[in-house]
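--- STAGE predict ---
source: upstream dedup step, 1 unique chain passed
mode: sequence only
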Amino acid sequence: MMTRYQSAGRTVTGKVRAHNEDAILLRDEAGLWVVADGLGGHAAGDYASSMIVERLASVPRQGNVIDFVEAIEDELQRVNGDLLQSAAARGVDLIGSTVVVLVYDEEYMLCGWVGDSRAYCYEDGQLRQITRDHVHGVKDDVTQIHHATPTPSPGALTRAVGAEPQLFVDWVVAASRSGTQFVLCTDGINKEMSDAELDDACRRAQEPQALVASLLDLAMSRAARDNVSAVIVRLEE
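--- STAGE serialize ---
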């Protein structure tokens, strides 16, 4: 594949959490980038996010972009089943993670997600969120997973890898135009900064390495209540 992009990524523990339950993946050679956020407060969140990244790191890119997307989704389905089995074996309710993935194609970009890890597209000087958080109502600082109860808690996740027997991944198509920049991030980013601040950071930093550094420096200059992770992909000529 001819690379028409630059990418950069970084993940840090933050100031409050004891360890990092986020995981990131940059596969420039395959045109695949991933951010996963293990569910804090549940057993082995880092195990769940690491499993997602390790499995997707080995998915071969064969055929066309739709074939590759189907292979990614099949692998996430297998991870979902394995996490359910691991939780049962350990006698815990849940071992889970959110995930957001970005796939490159010359004609268009494809973004898939489960949960509240986000993808933004910065194009023509304007930032927009292209994912939609799988949460009930307004999310607070504590990530919870919603099981089938009549009245889910406000802000509870309605989807996660490892939460239910059947996994549903949402996908969205975005333009594959020179100069477009994508931001994949865990909620450790949007807990610490507004979309307006993220937009300003994208405007100021055109290079992926510089933007990653700017975002993580800003989050770490504040409360950094959660793990903080971001992957930036910039399309070029």
